[in-house]
Amino acid sequence: MPELHLMFSRQRRWMFFLLAIYVLGWGFTSYQTIFLGLVFGTSLSLFNLWLMVRKMKQFGDSVSQGKKVRSLGSFSRFATGALAVVVSMRFPEHLHLISVVIGLMTSYIVIMIDFFIHSLQIHK
Prior knowledge:
By secondary structure, this protein is mainly alpha-helical. The protein is 83% helix and 0% strand. α1 runs antiparallel to α2, α1 crosses α4 (97-122) and α2 (32-64) packs across α4 (97-122). The longest helix is centred in the middle third of the chain and has 33 residues, at 32-64. The two termini are 24 Å apart. The mean pLDDT is 91.
């Protein structure tokens, strides 16, 4: 499990870097609804990433102890996505819906990019 926490640490660092860029975009451009949607969606995406890592750790602990295995929390992540869409549709003057959806997908994009970068560094 240590490699899971190392991966999460790297991915969390990338997510915070993207969030900082989005906040700067929100503060210094005229596309405030788009960048606020990206901030909102990416924040929830980071929460989903943390939730997924936590559930994977619990899953690994349960398997190693021979206990019954519960789900990996897909319903919680879907509910977070639904909440993001509902909030962005409720406040369209502040949040751009497409930006929120792109922000929700950010953690999966970061996971893929981190995997490719890390696998290239290992094979050198």
